[in-house]
Specification:
Blueprint lengths: L1 E4 L4 H14 L5 E4 L13 H19 L3 E12 L2 E11 L5 E5 L3 E2 L2 H7 L5 H9 L9 H6 L6 H17 L6
Parallel strand pairs: 1-2, 1-3
Antiparallel strand pairs: 3-4, 4-5, 4-6
Helix pairs in contact: 1-6, 3-4
Length: 174
């Protein structure tokens, strides 16, 4: 089985490999394809974030000629109770079959929001707050804000597994 991920981000690669290994018994080859999301660097609505994931999945599958295309796009979302962050995950299969999931959504603290209001994307802000370099390539904001209890790839793995549900339980998705 060939899976094309529309990203070269290590946490996303790890999440996709882990999720597909759990989901399927056959060998899985994950290829990474650097494709544009077609949305802003820091999506600010669920609709925009989903669209970025869909675009990445579509373009990656097409470019790699894969059985599945996977797009993972992180974004922020305003809510009555604050500003939250999560990723949307799209898995595209044969015959335009689609699965959609999300990672865990978490509230952003005021200190992070103040820095983001200056225009930096969350990865840059988290590096400033945590005194790290390229934290988004490791544990991400999940790791920083959970004091290491949850990592970016673990949250994304759950989202990928959620997006795979229509491919795993066909009897419920007709």
């Amino acid at each position: 089985m060939r899976v094309a991920l529309g990203s070269t981000s290590p946490p996303k690669i790890k999440a996709v490999k882990a999720a597909f290994k759990k989901a399927f018994s056959e060998p899985v080859e994950v290829v990474t394809v650097k494709v544009p999301s077609g949305v802003s660097d820091q999506p600010s609505t669920d609709k925009e974030t989903y669209q970025g994931a869909f675009n990445r999945a579509t373009n990656a599958r097409k470019e790699a000629k894969a059985d599945f295309g996977v797009g993972i796009e992180g974004g922020i979302h305003k809510h009555d109770h604050g500003v939250f962050s999560n990723a949307w995950i799209v898995v595209l299969g044969e015959n335009e079959k689609i699965g959609i999931g999300t990672s865990a959504r978490f509230q952003l603290p005021p200190k992070v929001l103040r820095l983001m209001e200056r225009g930096d994307e969350m990865g840059v802000v988290m590096d400033k707050v945590a005194g790290t370099k390229n934290i988004k390539l490791r544990g991400g904001a999940y790791s920083v804000l959970s004091d290491g209890k949850l990592s970016r790839w673990e949250a994304y793995e759950q989202g990928v597994l959620s997006a795979l549900m229509p491919f795993l339980t066909l009897e419920y998705w007709d």
